[in-house]
Amino acid sequence: MSPGFGIDIGGSGMKAAPVDLADGSLIADRLRLATPQPATPDAMSDVVVQLVRHFDWTGPVGITFPGVVRQGVIHSAANVDPSWIGYDGDARFTEATGCDVHMVNDADGAGLAEVRYGAGRDRRGVVLVLTFGTGIGSGLFNDGVLVPNTELGHLEIDGHDAESRAAASAREREGLSWKEWAQRVQRYLRTVVMLFSPELIIVGGGASRKADKWLPHIQVDTEIVPAALENEAGIVGAALVAGAEG
After folding, report:
1. Rounded Cα distance, 171 and 64, in Å
2. Number of other CB atoms surrounding residue 77 within 10 Å
3. How high is the pLDDT of residue 129?
4. Domains of the chain as residue ranges with CATH
């Protein structure tokens, strides 16, 4: 199986690496560059070109994006510049890099990686992958099949957009302890469980690296585990999308 190449775009950082699609491992150390501010299509295109050139990559490229992506066109942009909305990201990045680029929602990409290689491998029924970072992303799967662009981080809970209170960035912004933040995450998770009754919840994103500090404080009536690929799931999932489409 040929290797793939993935770029994971977040609100604060853009990370890339080539990926062994046989087992989901990174072939080289990932490179992380800061997400430009403002995060406009032109500014982010320059960073994508730097990432691709750093690895001398010429094949298909998969890119995860923090928003709704339909056939490469961006339909929401909560944590990047609003000028992305209605923009054909596939076409823009393909032109900029000279590579065949395919974009996918960031949490959907992370979920694809976890279901193929990680904590959701061989799991039947409804599996929900939630990424806690700048925002909250969601990847919803039934018997391994993705239901794309669920955007469950934007559920309204107690009169607030859920990610405004329960994203990892909210803990840092408000100076919350891990236990205090976990109480907010638990409120969010209980709402999601009530709505979707998943067999398994996989938590990923930047907060997954410190799962031992907050997951023990979570009590929900569903099995919940940290992402096996931790914060590399987005890169791996993006590479999977490139391999499938390329």
Report:
1. 24
2. 19
3. 97
4. 4-108+233-245 (3.30.420.40), 121-227 (3.30.420.40)
